[in-house]
Amino acid sequence: MSATPVLQSLIAGRWIGSSAARDLRSAINGRLVAQTHAEEIDFGESLDFARRQALPSLLALDFQQRAAILKALATYLQERKEDLYAISAHTGATRPDSWIDIEGGFGTLFAYASMGRRELPSSNIVHEGPAQQLGKVGQFMGTHVLVPKRGVAVHINAFNFPMWGMLEKFAPSFLAGMPCIVKPATATSYVAEACVRLIEQSGLLPAGALQLVIGGSGDLLDRLEETDVVTFTGSADTAAQLRVNANLIRRSVPFNAEADSLNCAILAPDVQPGDPEFDLFVKEVMREMSAKAGQKCTAIRRAIVPAAQVDAVAAALRERLAKIRIGDPSIEGVRMGALASKAQQADVAERLAQLAQGNEIVYGERDGFAPVGEGVGDGAFFAPTLLLCRDPMRNEAVHNIEAFGPVSTLMTYGDFDEALALAAKGRGSLVGSVVTKTPALAAQAVYHAAAFHGRLLVLDRDAAGESTGHGSPLPMLKHGGPGRAGGGEELGGIRAVKHYLQRCAVQASPTMLTAITGEYVRGGKVTEDAIHPFRKHFEEIQVGDSLLTHRRTVSEADIVNFGGISGDYFYMHFDEVAAKDTQFGQRIAHGYFVLSAAAGLFVSPAPGPVLANYGLDTLRFVNPVAIGDTIQARLTCKRRIDRGNRPDQPPQGVVAWDVQVTNQRGELAASYDILTLVAKKA
Ligand code: NDP
């Protein structure tokens, strides 16, 4: 018989821990899975290592390089996922539950890798422009930059998604250039430890970029500094306790919390039994009760239905819940596993007992333990339990007590305003769903419920086929809600990276701002040389390289020819009489002609390193171009992004060019950025 493994912490580049402290047991059969270590962690050493070793290594890389590492890491882990599934099974999770945790975690890494690649520069400074002119002549401007905070990110995670919870916080922090110290919830820390071991074995991260704490966090929070960040997921009580840590308050250390949430799903009054939306609602409630045995921060705790439909909804849910096979997920056909621990089982039973007072049980048993299932041994199983509250405006418990398991409460409403008032009684939730077939009801619901929710899903028959579901946070959408849900924000695309960067307003001349931001700011000095910018390779192009073109007088023939080629005979270009009555008082050239003519002025036509023009940004036609006006273009390198090299492409970089088209009076006619791919020399 092999000895029970003692989990280890990864601190300052060393795995620490050999003597056992706390037993961690399988949620399925109560057998010992692992033990935490008894050795105390020196958090001074951990933080010092993060600041002195990891931080400089992370900042020696740029956003693009860190994004590439995230992708390599996701690929590495993906190839070793079966080891993680085997370990995850001890948490009571079914394969689909573990999929959310494991592959959902990898998916988040992949998503941040590609968002970083697409949206962040090949430097460590993000220009949050555009710069604003603060004086009359444009030589004093103001803008915002985001820079790495030069601190450490502490992540405290919940027991329910030990991998996803860790990776969804790690990905944006790493991208931002922050070393992370991760403290998983102890109950399922063996999964997080297995994942961190793989990450360390990959050799892909700089030493200390990710440290792991098994067990308590000791005096870690007391040691944090002004540049650090804490991100927490767990219970509202723990969040309330930790966010008032005197050191965090004194030093204004941001504390981002994602805590309890009594999420709701509303069946709108327009939906009748027999409508596809009726079945969608029932399915969604059933899925959220049974997935991960209801231990999802996003699970539906409150199903709000019209009083007239409650019997039909209850009957449909009863029928579906009865079909869920509960037991050891390794048994074929089992759809719902166990809660994560016996402690969790006791906690859910206690909260169910409180919730059941004064409410009917529509499905399940009063204690939740009764019909446990197959192969359950001494596991932490809990039967799905559906309650019915007929007076939810007066019953406060159903809006306040979260049984973090397969427990949900049906509650009835009279009119739709009452349904929305019930939704708000959750006092801030991560997510809510509205199931309706009427756009006006969807609009009314979102307008009122958005103030109380981090995310809202509007579900109808059109969206159903592709819907990702009520309970799935997505990397590109914000996760986190106001009030009881903790008041924090995670994910939401690059927003999450910005949470780990520091924003600073900068005032300076355009030339200074160009140097500071790494992006050409109009009015700044430009460099003109004999070589056309389009004849330069990526490495040779500098921000500020510029070309002032020759001029071209726009004739009536140009307008007529352009109309003929494009088929655009809009009156403004072709009807002298109608054009006279407009604000321009005369016929003017097509905006797209000006754009095309400008390209004719600035391109260097022979084959060269510019491989493609893949789009335009920020296009504005500022002043009209009339017949007889003379236009000229200035093309200036605004931004260059080195995304590294990909094996499937010739070596290349992204160059954005600032284009200004002016008329003979020096007035701006058109303004835009063109985006090109430019070959590298190598
Ligand atoms: P806790 O709040 O107890 O724990 C969350 C995390 O905080 C764990 O890593 C825990 O570590 C840590 N922690 C607890 N106390 C401290 C402390 N004093 N200092 C530093 N870290 C601390 O939540 P649980 O995970 O036990 O879950 C309890 C309840 O929280 C659930 O029943 C549910 O209601 C809610 N919950 C909400 C979630 C959400 O996403 N909204 C997710 C999970 C749970 P340790 O495990 O070592 O105690």
Nutshell version of this structure?
With 682 residues, the chain is of the alpha/beta class. It is globular, with a radius of gyration of 30 Å. NADPH dihydro-nicotinamide-adenine-dinucleotide phosphate is lined by residues 156-160, 183, 185-187, 216-217, 233-235, 238, 241-242, 258-261, 297, 347, 402, 404.
What does this structure look like?
It comes from Roseateles chitinivorans. Keywords: Oxidoreductase. Residues 37-445 form the Aldehyde dehydrogenase domain. With 682 residues, the protein is of the alpha/beta class. It has three domains: 9-258, Aldehyde Dehydrogenase, Chain A, domain 1; 264-474, Aldehyde Dehydrogenase, Chain A, domain 2, CATH 3.40.309; 526-679, Roll (Thiol Ester Dehydrase, Chain A). The protein contains 21 helices and 26 strands. The chain has a seven-stranded mixed β-sheet with strand order 14-15-16-13-12-17-18, with helices on both faces. Helix 2 (63-78) runs antiparallel to helix 5 (164-176). Bound molecules: NADPH dihydro-nicotinamide-adenine-dinucleotide phosphate (NDP). NADPH dihydro-nicotinamide-adenine-dinucleotide phosphate is lined by residues 156-160, 183, 185-187, 216-217, 233-235, 238, 241-242, 258-261, 297, 347, 402, 404.
Number of domains: 3
CATH-derived topology of the largest domain: Aldehyde Dehydrogenase, Chain A, domain 1
CA distance, first residue to last residue: 57 Å
The average pLDDT score comes to: 95
Sum up the overall morphology in one term: globular
